[in-house]
Specification:
Distance between the termini: 54 Å
Helix content: 10-25%
Order of helices and strands: HEEEEEEEEEEEH
Structural class: alpha+beta
Oligomer: single chain
Number of domains: 2
Radius of gyration: 29 Å
């Protein structure tokens, strides 16, 4: 009986060890599969698409606004724009996702004036001219220039780190711009009452331009700045004025993998 008991115990221990070894192999396979999936996602990962908030300001070639005309003094707290980057394409050259990046975006740059002025653009005589006309006894509630653009970046992006959520990224390159619409919007009060005025005009701005762009961040969150390569307005319209932008990604647009992962988490949480 003792021999039988010893044999049965040995068999049980052997089977337990075998099953444990199989469990460890399965867990290792699952872990390797997850690591492979993570590497694949990192390789495809880019940081262009999303909803972005921007601050826009005018200055000389170095970004200093002290030498600009007095009427161009801005209210930076109201010079807030946005961008919607809805398409992107990554050409990875490394397994961590570093590579060339391009895409498309739509946005509006906003310039709010601090002075009580209206923009006066004269293109009936050569050369074209843009000036600010000062108004007395007028209380402006809104006095802004809105510039609508399509954007297309050509950049190289470096990814540092293997975690999809906690990795550092930095990108540098050129941002092409197509200005397809612009307008001055004013809301003001004077002795005659309250008024809202919208003046759609080019105001002598260039249609096409290119900026230098640098983007950097952690995970899906990105901060960026753009520096112009040429003045905002056409020659002789006004003195050379350059447009600068700084902003951050407020709502990154998740990829299909991100969406599916969040959907499964919601199902699990709410027992759907």
């Amino acid at each position: 009986m003792k021999k039988i008991a010893i044999l049965l115990s040995s068999a049980a221990l052997l089977m337990t060890g075998t099953f444990r070894s199989q469990d460890l192999l399965i867990e290792k396979d699952i872990e390797n599969h997850r690591d492979h999936e993570s590497e694949c996602k990192i390789e495809r990962l880019s940081h262009w698409d999303g909803f972005e908030i921007t601050v826009n300001w005018l200055g000389d070639q170095k970004g200093n606004n002290a030498q600009l005309p007095l009427w161009m003094e801005q209210d930076l707290g109201k010079s807030i724009g946005f961008r919607i980057n809805g398409a992107e394409k990554k050409f990875a050259v490394h397994k961590n996702g570093s590579g060339f990046l391009t895409g498309l975006g739509l946005g509006m740059d906003s310039y709010a004036w601090r002075k009580n002025i209206s923009l006066s653009f004269n293109n009936t005589a050569a050369p074209d001219s843009l000036v600010g006309v000062f108004h007395q006894d007028v209380d402006f509630h809104k006095n802004e220039l809105h510039v609508w653009k399509l954007y297309a970046p050509v950049m190289f992006e470096w990814n540092i780190g293997k975690s999809e959520k906690r990795h550092f990224h930095i990108a540098a390159g050129v941002l092409g711009n197509w200005r397809f619409a612009s307008s001055a919007k004013q809301e003001y009060t004077n002795a005659q009452g309250d008024f809202e005025v919208k003046n759609t005009n080019s105001f002598g701005m260039k249609t096409f331009s290119a900026d230098l762009m640098v983007r950097a961040g952690i995970g899906r969150h990105t901060f960026f700045v753009t520096m112009p390569t040429a003045p905002l307005f056409k020659p002789h319209v006004t003195q050379p004025v350059y447009s600068f932008t700084a902003g951050f990604s407020l709502i990154p647009f998740d990829s299909d993998e991100h969406f599916e992962k969040r959907k499964e988490k919601l199902k699990e949480r709410w027992k759907i």
